[in-house]
Design brief:
By secondary structure, the chain is α/β, with parallel strands linked by helices. It folds into 2 domains: about 230 residues, P-loop containing nucleotide triphosphate hydrolases (Rossmann fold), CATH 3.40.50.300; about 240 residues, Rossmann fold. It contains 16 helices and 22 strands. The protein has a 6-stranded mixed sheet with strand order 6-7-8-3-9-10, sandwiched between helices. A 6-stranded mixed sheet has the order 16-19-20-13-21-22, sandwiched between helices. It has a 4-stranded antiparallel sheet with strand order 2-1-4-5, with helices on one face. The radius of gyration is 25 Å and the shape is globular.
Length: about 500
């Protein structure tokens, strides 16, 4: 190890997937006992950076050095770097000791020394200052203690750098303070920490320095003491609301969709109203409960409370919602939305297949399906040679248009979009925005969940801001301020407020 060398040095670190660059020319140093905040909006490149630094991804180019020594690729269990990922990697049916030692169980394959594993786990937990029985099953522990177990597991390999990715998302205020005390203790012991979080108060509570990513590029770095929270937020957002917006009509005063007191483990007491001709956006950070809310409204998740369409309560199940003219366009088109190995024609007609079924002499036939699918291809500007091409052959943008076209073929009155332009190029994004705006101009009701704040500012009449399962703010289009909105989403306030 070189004297006074940084724990970790990164130079010109770049990662591409195909022709898409997701991280470009990243460069920073991390010193012993330093906590560095890696910040940026959703999709900025933080997770990709984390995965390269802990060895889960191989950089396309650039150099990573550990304790002054260049490494070709960081080993996930070597080089003294380990990560606690946002999605915990614990086995619920195994004990605390088994989870902590799982990558390096003492003994042999023929005979594991469980007493030693329990002793190792106990030492790790005692060091972190939390009372947990090493023999307890993970599934019996709360979120806070599971987070501690994950950190204890990571610390077996992290003698130089520990990466914490959104570690407080599922924690209560008391649990967060315990985690911050653990971070302070690790920092005092000389461990270097990369702290990834959207919450500004947490960043200023535990971090010394920062690196800001925006659209895969490093746009700022320095000491937190030298920058205000607003300045940091401006670096993250990087742009003001564009003057040119999609043309929107004027919503009516007639409520089409109402949600009253909707509550689940992921969100609490949500109330909202969307009017005919209105596009309402739901903004918030990762873990705020936006997707869970959208799925619960459509009946995909259990929740208590009421959903009303045109003033009448509707049973919260998919069949009832579709029968009442409400549709939901999922954020995960490849897993939950499309039949990738089936023709575009079948994908476009799937939601309204009953409209085309007819009896024929040789069994079941489909009247009008091809014509309607071809019409939807033209309407959505889907670029394909033929409607019999498989969806898997299409680009991401055209796949998203197929998914949207499928639901439009039902001629719904109310549409819920979850990340409607996720993973599409600029041209496809423009087409989808225009299609959504045209729906509203024609009197349809639209609810949009998106992690792309500029998108929400571009195509909505009104925004609701969620934070940790609650609606914490409402903003009218004429008062949109991107920095104020991201600040609201990351603040500690829980009461509904309006941005003037």
């Amino acid at each position: 190890m070189t004297d006074n060398a940084p724990s970790l040095s990164v130079r010109n670190l770049t990662k591409t997937f195909g022709d898409k660059t997701v991280v470009s020319d990243l460069a920073f140093d991390l010193h012993p006992g330093e906590v560095l905040a890696l910040v940026g909006e959703n999709g900025a490149g933080k997770s990709t950076t984390k995965n390269m630094l802990c060895g889960l991804l191989l950089p396309t180019s650039g150099q990573i050095s550990v304790a002054g020594q260049p490494v070709e690729r960081v080993s996930p269990t070597g080089h003294g770097i380990s990560a606690v990922h946002q999605e915990l990697s614990l086995f619920g049916s195994l004990s605390v000791a088994e989870n902590i030692c799982i990558s390096d169980l003492p003994g042999s394959a023929a005979r594991v020394k469980w007493d030693q594993a329990e002793q190792i786990a106990r030492e790790q937990i005692d060091f972190l200052g939390i009372e947990i029985d090493p023999r307890a099953l993970i599934e019996t522990l709360g979120a806070g203690k599971q987070q501690v177990v994950e950190i204890a597991k990571a610390l077996l390999h992290a003698d130089r750098v520990l990466i914490l990715d959104e570690p407080t998302t599922s924690l209560t205020a008391v649990e967060r303070e315990k985690l911050f005390a653990i971070i302070d203790k690790l920092k005092a012991g000389g461990l270097s920490i990369i702290f990834i979080s959207h919450f500004m108060e947490e960043i200023y509570r535990v971090c010394d320095s920062f690196v800001v990513l925006r659209d895969g590029k490093q746009v700022g770095q320095g000491k937190l003491a030298d920058v205000s929270q607003r300045t940091l937020e401006e670096m993250m957002v990087g742009r003001t609301l564009e003057d040119a917006r999609v043309a929107l009509g004027s919503p009516s005063q007639s409520p089409a969709l109402e949600v009253r007191g909707l509550t689940s483990p992921d969100f609490h007491d949500v109330n909202l109203t969307v009017h005919r001709g209105e596009i309402l956006g739901i903004a918030g950070l990762m873990g705020a409960g936006r997707t869970e809310l959208a799925e619960a409204i459509f009946g995909l998740r259990h929740a208590t409370g009421d959903v009303l369409i045109d003033g009448k309560p509707v049973a919260r199940n998919v069949t009832a919602m579709k029968a009442n003219g409400l549709c939901y366009v999922t954020e995960d088109r490849r897993t939950n939305g499309l039949f990738l190995n089936r023709p575009v024609r079948e994908n476009l007609s799937a939601a309204a297949i009953a409209k085309y079924v007819r009896r024929a002499m040789r069994g079941i036939g489909f009247r009008g399906e091809k014509a309607k699918s071809a019409e939807m291809v033209d309407e959505m500007n889907i670029a394909i040679p033929h409607i019999e091409n498989h969806v898997s052959d299409l680009s991401g943008g055209n796949q998203q248009k197929v998914l949207l076209g499928r639901w439009l073929s039902m001629e719904p009155e109310i549409l819920i979009f979850d990340e409607p332009t996720k993973g599409v190029d600029i041209g496809a994004k423009f087409d989808i925005h225009e299609a959504i705006a045209e729906l509203a101009r024609s009197g349809k009701t639209v609810l949009i969940v998106s992690s792309d704040l500029p998108e929400l500012l571009h195509i909505t009449h009104r925004l609701l801001v969620m934070r940790k399962g609650r609606i914490v703010g409402e903003v009218q289009r004429e008062n949109y301020d991107s920095v104020a909105i991201i600040s609201m989403a990351a603040s500690s306030g829980e009461e509904v407020s309006n941005v003037a």
